[in-house]
Amino acid sequence: MRENYAEHIRSMYPVGSRILLVQMGDDPRPIPPNTMGTVIAEDDLGTVHSIFDNGRRMKLIPGETSFHIVEPKKRGGDAR
Length: 80
Prior knowledge:
The structure is a single chain. The chain is mainly beta. The protein has a single domain (about 1-70), classed as SH3 type barrels (Roll). Helix content is about 15%, strand content about 35%. The protein has one helix spanning about 1-10; strands at about 20-25, 35-40, 50, 55-60, 65-70.
């Protein structure tokens, strides 16, 4: 079942997609709300690895950290 979850996360947040961090959970050094970032990887646990425009990198867990996709990565011939 965990494999299906990871595949679901990969389809929702493809590498290269732009995301908006809405709010972090309990973190001693939180990234400010409304910070934009880019998805750089997803792992087999369904964690979304991101780099934010302020230079911070963070592993985001859907459901624990509030974020959403703003601009999906175009698939196919788009050279962006």
